[in-house]
Specification:
3-stranded mixed sheet; 29% strand; alpha/beta; 15 strands
């Protein structure tokens, strides 16, 4: 009787333990792990070990379409990995494959292909404010060359670059030329540029016309304190000597958008 009672107590204790949520969850996790191990051990591993092997064909130098066709014929799965720049291969050709050609792999293995982007591209640096010497160094350092140098009268310091053929950030092939515009100082024209700052756009236009000059590019900027169409700045600035018919660029105010607030920095 004592033995039966002891077994009964043990059974009840185990039953109470197994009814706890934590224990149930732990047992389910253990069961899932065991099933996974059995599946890998008796199904996946035997299938992988016994699956046919093939030798990876070479696709380097082929087009994407040709490479895919050759790999699929060998029961392999081609995948485009990335684009790289290589002057030895035309744009769109395969420059690299992984695994390499000649390696023995299982059928269905993924073969990663890397396409040529053609010649390397670089971004044009900012040359404004530099000297010719500094600009040449900045360009050559990234594989570009200094192109045509055009000397133009301006109110910028003499021998300073105030404009460039390609804007900063433009992408060009290595070895490309970039032209620059150099200031030779204030022009020696016969017409003195009038002071237009603070004038209305219509007043500025009349003053320019009276001096045989014209309005060039108008750059509008929002203002919370000045009336719309008020001249904030001008280029060339007042006092510069220019030729009749030359243009003067203006920076002019415009009304703020409804609800827009002024940002004070």
């Amino acid at each position: 009787m004592l033995f039966k009672k002891g077994l009964f107590d043990i059974f009840e204790t185990m039953k109470n333990i197994l009814q706890k949520p934590f224990i149930k969850k732990l047992l389910l996790i253990l069961a899932a792990i065991i099933v996974t191990i059995l599946v890998f051990d008796y199904l996946i591993f035997p299938w992988y070990v016994s699956s046919p092997e093939v030798t990876v064909p070479t696709v380097k130098g082929l087009s994407e379409e040709e490479a895919f066709e050759r790999l699929e014929d060998a029961n392999l799965e081609p995948v485009i990995g990335d684009t790289t720049y290589d002057v030895k291969f035309a744009k769109g050709l395969i420059v690299l494959q992984r695994p390499d050609a000649g390696e023995v792999v299982k059928e269905g293995r993924r073969i990663y292909l890397f396409l040529s982007g053609g010649e390397p591209l670089v971004m044009v640096p900012n040359l404004k404010g530099k000297s010719i010497r500094d600009a040449k160094f900045s360009l050559e350092r990234i594989g570009l060359k200094l192109g045509r140098i055009e000397e133009i009268p301006s109110n910028n310091p003499k021998d300073m670059i105030f404009d460039q053929e390609f804007a900063e950030g433009t992408t060009l092939k290595k070895g490309s030329f970039v032209g620059i515009y150099i200031s030779i100082g204030e022009g020696e024209g016969s017409v003195e540029v009038p002071d237009l700052v603070g004038k209305s756009l219509s007043e500025a236009e009349k003053m320019l016309t009276d001096n045989s000059l014209t309005i060039g590019k108008i750059n509008y900027q929002r203002s919370f304190s000045l009336l719309p169409n008020t001249v904030l700045d001008q280029y060339p600035s007042k006092g510069n000597k220019v030729n009749p018919g030359d243009k003067v660029d203006l920076f002019v105010t415009k009304a703020a958008e409804p609800g827009e607030k002024e940002v004070i920095e």
